[in-house]
Amino acid sequence: MRILEYSGEELEHLAPEFFLPVIVRTGQDFRGRAAIQGLGKTLTLSRSHSGQMSAVRTNRMAARASVDNLMLFCIYTDGRGRVGQHNRYVELAGGTGVLTEARSRYERISSAETQRMSLRFSRELLPLRTTEITEACARSVDPAAPAMQMLSGYLGRLFEIADELTERQRLDAGQATIDLLAMVLRDVTPSVPGGDGPDDVLLEMMRSHVCEHLADPHLRVEELARRHHVSVSRMYTLFERIGTTPGAYLREQRLLAAQIMLSDPKYARLGTSDIADAVGFVDRRTFERGFRRQYGTTPAGWRRQHRHYGSGPATLTQEMPPR
């Protein structure tokens, strides 16, 4: 077992050893600790404890061929965080897991002290199709799911006894870990087998359209259906495939975009009404009610809580287009 203790400045240099190469932002008093177990040439299991932080993997970093095959599966054992990749953003609490891939830009924010167990591995080890792996990224894994309970329990026990295993046993244990992870991820992806049928393509087109046109106040359920030449009832059927409704998906994406803007010092001069407007909310009261319901605080309260990040990183969201 290898133990690392680090400050915020040191984390950016050490992250590739148990995390992925990222740009890190932390507070002045940030301290972290990681314990790492090697399970193979391209497979490591680690436990880490750190304070509030944000990490971004940029497009340029993602384009580097030397690490584009790396994957990271994290289980938040304590604390809360947020991860974004592929125009998806998920909130993570204790016990939930999330997969990210190095070959695409992503963002990770921990809004409080967190403890995580992380499995870092080569993409080639995972016995899933490329489309399945990408579709599984940035989706919350329910800690109550049977497969997730098996994986969490196995990882916890493996971490404790790994030092007692022979090299061959470590390799076998690592392979068993990947097999369990594949079982977990098969339950996460919303796509039907194959994942490339006409309905899947249409659904992905609509989801991309939502993320690219959040600032458009005219974008509503009926308008989304009209722009894609489908009936509203068919659109509801399509969104059932990912466990939501068109209206809920649109609202969630707008609120997530607003949350990221409120956390980013780049938008510090914008009032909450301006941010509501920038993500397509016509009525400020509707925006504030929805934000409070989703995140348990007002937009202004969220901004105050996250002001300590200082000059935060660039986010996954693009600049909002002019209205």
Automatic annotation (TrEMBL):
Signal sequence, renumbered to the chain: none
Segments forming domain HTH araC/xylS-type: 204-305
Cited Pfam families: AraC_binding_2, HTH_18
Highest taxon above the source species: Bacteria
This protein's record includes keyword Transcription regulation: yes
Positions of region (Disordered): 298-323
Residue ranges with Polar residues bias: 314-323
Keyword vocabulary terms for this entry: DNA-binding, Transcription, Transcription regulation
InterPro entries: AraC-bd_2, AraC_XylS_family_regulators, Homeodomain-like_sf, HTH_AraC
Protein name: Helix-turn-helix domain-containing protein
